[in-house]
Amino acid sequence: MNINDTDKQMNSDSDACHKQLEEMRSGIDDIDTHIVELINKRLSITKEVGELKKKFNLPVLDKSRENIILKRISDLNKGPAKDTVLHYIYSVIMAASKELQRPLSIAYLGPEATYTHIAALNHFRHSGTFVPQRNIRDIFLEVERGACQYGVVPVENSIEGAVNHTLDLLFESDIRICAEIYQVISHDLLSETGNLEDIQVIYSHPQPFGQCRLWLNKNLPDAKLEECSSTSHAAKIVKGKKNAAAIASSKAAQVYDLKVVESRIEDSCRNETRFLVIGKDKDLPNTGKDKTSIMFVTSHIPGALFQALEPVAELGVNMVKLESRPTKNENWNYFFIMDLEGHMKDQPLETIITRMKHRCLFLKCLGSYPRMQEGYKEIQNNNIGILSTR
Predict the structure, then answer these.
(1) Any bridge partners for residue 133, and if so which?
(2) DSSP letter string, 66-81
(3) DSSP 8-state class, residue 372
(4) How many Å from the N-terminal Cα to the C-terminal Cα in the chain?
(5) CATH number of the domain located at residue range(s) 188-270 in this protein
(6) Cα separation of 338 and 193, whole Å?
(7) What integer pLDDT is reported at residue 48 of this predicted model?
(8) CB 157 within 8 A of CB 273
């Protein structure tokens, strides 16, 4: 075969390739047309669902229904798409559905790029407006007065323990727990220059200082530690200061244009924080995989706590957590917060609550809500990078 014949063959193969590509792209365009039509059809139905919910005063947020949808999507998936990809796509569609049903406003511990903000974004996705608050009390106040439908607050950390201010406010207010979020926490050291030797003072929230204690003692033992209301506030303070650094999220470095001196300086790789979604929703549906939170006060006599908890043991219900806090209205008097597996409408929990009420000075249910499942935790934490406020 001479050169001319080779050129002709190459041109013929190229033409065939381009023709095949055009056919494939045309097929993709047809599929996209159907996808857009079906998404809009789905959103139209969810808008009708929203009108029905509004008529009967039902909550827009229904994580149990969302989890059922995501599980069904996984069961339907035959590949090559990964479940996490489909879950992300559907989480955006569901967020758009909630936006159509009723625009949401979500209060969080600000400013932008705090871990609470990241948790809120991972939970609500693109649905609603995210409103930063100066402190946890302000989040509760915004939800109580109806300025925001929901708030996101930290309640406990796997290393540092309970966030006592949140527990105290749950005791004082009539706010309900609507959902829980588990967020993996990873701390970066951020500064203006990016040089470790420049750092003389470090700003952060008290919890990250405790979670990075070993690294700080080893690498910056002489640095002065200054506590702030949030990690993002620390990042804002550091901006423009050559001898200062902040312990904050990697997203804070992007938002506040700081350099990462060192990544992942936390002492434990198992650092995780549990956040609560708080609101006024009542009677969330029973999903079969729920958690119920209860607060109670016992008499200040020997055996009072044992007597209060006795029905839990008798009925074989798993107690996930028990925490105590001073009531503040009387010295050496405490309230307890307890998390139980199950829904308050389940027969065992209904019986437990009834029996406990007769043995306690005070008892209130903070709400039953879906337990975050391990698979959904992974989806949440894989999408930490989604940061947007409107």
Answers:
(1) 109
(2) HHHHHHHHHHH--SSS
(3) P
(4) 65
(5) 3.40.190.10
(6) 46
(7) 80
(8) yes
The closest of 150, 146, 144, 115 to 130, measured between CA atoms, is 150
**Maximum CA extent, the chain:** 104
Residue 165's Cβ-count burial label (10 Å; 0-12, 13-18, 19+) is middle
CATH architecture entry for 290-370: 2-Layer Sandwich (3.30)
Residue 80's CB is within 10 A of a number of other CB atoms, namely: 6
Distance CA 100, CA 51 (A): 10
Two tokens, residue 21: 């590509």
188-270 matches 59-185+373-390 in CATH topology? yes
Distance CA 118, CA 349 (A): 33
Say yes or no to pLDDT of 204 above 90: yes
Sign of the alpha-carbon dihedral angle for 324, 312, 350, 279: positive
CATH of domain 59-185+373-390: 3.40.190.10
CA atoms within 13 A on the CB side of 29: 6
CB-CB neighbours of 113 under 10 Å: 26
Residue 47 tokens, joined: 């808008």
Residue 354: per-residue pLDDT? 95
Question: What type of residue sits at position 20?
Answer: Q
Q: Which residues contact 109 (CB under 8 A, 6 or more apart)?
A: 116, 117, 132, 133, 135, 136, 139, 152, 153, 154, 230
* Confidence at 223, pLDDT banded by 50, 70, 90: very high
Work out the average pLDDT over 82-101. Answer: 80
CA distances to 31, 121, 201 from 128, rounded to whole Å, are 30, 10, 37
| Alpha carbons 312 and 315: distance in angstroms, whole number | 6
pLDDT tens for 7-34 read 666 667 777 888 888 888 888 988 989 8
